[in-house]
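Hey, resending since the last one bounced:
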Amino acid sequence: MTKKDFQGIQMLGCCSTTTDEKPISRKQREFARREQEILAAAVSLFENPHWETVTVEQIAKKAEIGKGTVYKHFTCKDDIYANISTGFMTRILTAYRIHDERTEIIDAIKEIISTSFEMFLGNPAEARVSFYCKRGDFRERLTPELKAEFEMLDEQFTGYIGTILQKGINQGLLPNKPVEHLMMGLEATFDGAIGSIWNGDINCPQVEDQETYITIISEYMVAGLVGLKK
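The structure tokens again:
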């Protein structure tokens, strides 16, 4: 059973079925539950700064199962990384959409930036794994199914944020430049800021704490977008 299967079970509920689908068996529910327990164990171990050194054996021990059981769910550590990342990306998109009622473009952009910082700093293990999973060499090693899932999520992020930016362009609030270029700048600035926070590189005397640093970077990101049209 894949991660998508488990998400389907969650939506259906333990006992609910539709007229076109077979009832979810107890074995399937147990398999899905165990898969989530493995991922949760991995995330807890990945809190360590040297998370990439964590072994499948350590994950199995943390989940209180045999190493072989892990491999019944995931073929390798890359599969574990990928499932953690896609789950995290899905949660970020869900968090973005909570604020869909915002009509002011600049407010919507600010909310996206704020939510992104909250999600990445509030879930450092999953965020670090997601950063790692952006690498091209990592994506190339994945199964076709996982590659397709990442591509779908990338498209959803691009579509969601791109639509907001395009509205800003149409309203004359943002520069008339390719949306992809604007997103590239936002992503590069955000990634750099997160990296600085994780590495403890906030060494400016005028910045008293992390919250102040985030406020400065967030304002810079918005100002950079708006200022480009001058």
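The two ends are 53 Å apart (CA to CA).

Sorry for the duplicate.
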